Amino acid sequence: MCVTNTDGRMTLADDAPSTEYEDTCKRAGEEHGRAIRTVLDRIGDKWSLLVIGALQHGTLRFTELQRHVPGVSQRMLTLTVRQLERDGLVTRTVHAEVPPRVEYRLTAVGETLIEPSLALAQWAIEHYPAIERAREAFDGS
Amino acid sequence: MCVTNTDGRMTLADDAPSTEYEDTCKRAGEEHGRAIRTVLDRIGDKWSLLVIGALQHGTLRFTELQRHVPGVSQRMLTLTVRQLERDGLVTRTVHAEVPPRVEYRLTAVGETLIEPSLALAQWAIEHYPAIERAREAFDGS
DNA sequence: CCGAATCCAATCGGATACTG
DNA sequence: CAGTATCCGATTGGATTCGG
Fold first, then answer.
1. Full-model pTM
2. Coiled-coil intervals in this record (chains A, B) (predicted)?
């Protein structure tokens, strides 16, 4: 897994043959692979990206968050925000009141994730029709 | 799930209160939600993005592809390229030879996925250390 | 060389019920 | 309100074996 190649181009996966330089790149790239894998495991799950998106305009409480992410169960929302909190992408603030009030908010790091996620979302919207057509053609033949 | 808001800003999830306009946006946005979900289900899996990355510089045969994506099993590589083929992101060309030769290549649509994926990969590499630190801090406390 | 088929463990995620 | 706990079906993905 190399991200910066010998020619300076960016790559997502490793092309490396077995030259010494490439091997160095490969070893360094293994770290990159873990980074990409880790991030993909987070944003690739069913709800994280939607939660990030729901929080992009400000603070939300648990129930509000649940309304903004249609279809998420209480359990999965809890697990998802815990993961995001653990990864330092979301802060969780508990106010000592009755009834309890818990507020979720993106951290600075969490906010930087919005831009690339949005790029992906735009790609999805733009190419979804083509994908649907491709599937029908593939399944039909 | 709204992507373009009333104020023109982009969003990943739906903020919509129940005005008529927002409801229209919401209904239209449900389509966007399916698009994003669909694409996330594809690139969010364990291997698709790595395969796309491996193919970004040209054509590869099955075994080459497997070498370029370290850790992938034969089974998963087969399933992954089939999905990508079905979605019209990759072409699969079988040459009638012995031994058989099968070549995989990105389609035009597949190539457009590289840019946003790379943006995400760069984010991953840049913020992975912060995520690791956040996790240690979270787990330690 | 390029797969398909089978088996199986682990994880994911929904439903439901209960709590401070 | 904001969770936690438990159960359970569905999905994921690795290992292995067989075939054209």
1. 0.83
2. none
